[in-house]
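Dear colleagues,

For the upcoming journal club I promised to circulate an example of a predicted protein-ligand complex. I picked one with phosphoric acid mono(formamide)ester because it came up in last month's discussion. The inputs are reproduced below in full, followed by the predicted structure.
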Amino acid sequence: MQTTNKIQTVSSLIDTINFRGKSLLSINDLSNEQIYGLFELAAAFEPWNRSVINLLPGNVMVTLFFQPSTRTRMSFETAMHRLGGAVITEANPMVTSSSAKEESLSDAMKVISKYANVIVLRHPNDEEARDACNYADSPVINGGFGHWEHPTQALLDLYTLWRTQGRVEDVNVCIASADLVAARTGHSMAYGLARLGANVTLASPKANRTPASVMEKVGAVNGNVKEVFDLDQDSFNEMIADMDLVYLPGCSAPKGAEAEAFKKVMDSYYVRHETLERVRQEQGRTICVTHTLPRRPGEMDLRIDTTPSQQYFEAITYSVSIRMALVASILGN
Ligand code: CP
């Protein structure tokens, strides 16, 4: 009886979210009400995090990843299995699919969407990816497009924040990276945080600041968004001492000759364990730190892993529930 009630709750939440048959390319494809609806639905799915709620039998998800992934691909695939659906994985399409024979992405999407009820696509070129989505006959979920957006990573980080702090509104968040041009998750998260009323600080070198196109949209919905540039490690750590959450979106580090110079810039955004401990001891307050992962040596003190500040591994469990919610809202009922 209890399970029947829970399934009725799930079904009614899916109706309320009203996202059936839609694609998610940007976090801005969702209204604030839909984002909160997905949070409620994800919370309702949490009891099935290690089992199956058989909502989507007969549905197929194709994960088509032109860039490497551990978390995004596997958590979507886990989510689909937990919902009782099936998964076809293409994790290396430039080798094992007809993309290796120069088939265009638009043709590939046209064909694959005849098999799939939903496609999760990751691609290095956001313009090509967005254009190709127009050729798909099934909904498409952006699993990371170029330097543009990674909306489901932001969704899972927003959900983690909502679950752990009980709200997003008025939370003080610093998004920090040595390169906020390339940090696609940083863009999606800035949109989401701003829209849900957080106070957002974007910290980066001025040369690698958040693109103006992102800042314009973020600024239009929230006056409490600011940028700070060219901090050194001391001033960065002083600044984050006032935050509730430090958000490290990571980005692709250059290789070869530029690698050493980039490491020096990264060093300015290093999160010190001592900063978090001092605030905990002096103010009794926990500054949470999350990183979208994978992380690199030199981004944070690894001692943070075993403190209450650590949220990057906590978020992994939440990632399955929120992706279950998204997929169920697209394919369910
Ligand atoms: N956070 C994230 O997108 O990780 P993966 O590259 O492993 O999917």
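Two points we might discuss: The chain has a mean pLDDT of 96. Residues 191 and 214 are 8 Å apart (CA to CA).

See you all on Thursday,
B. R.
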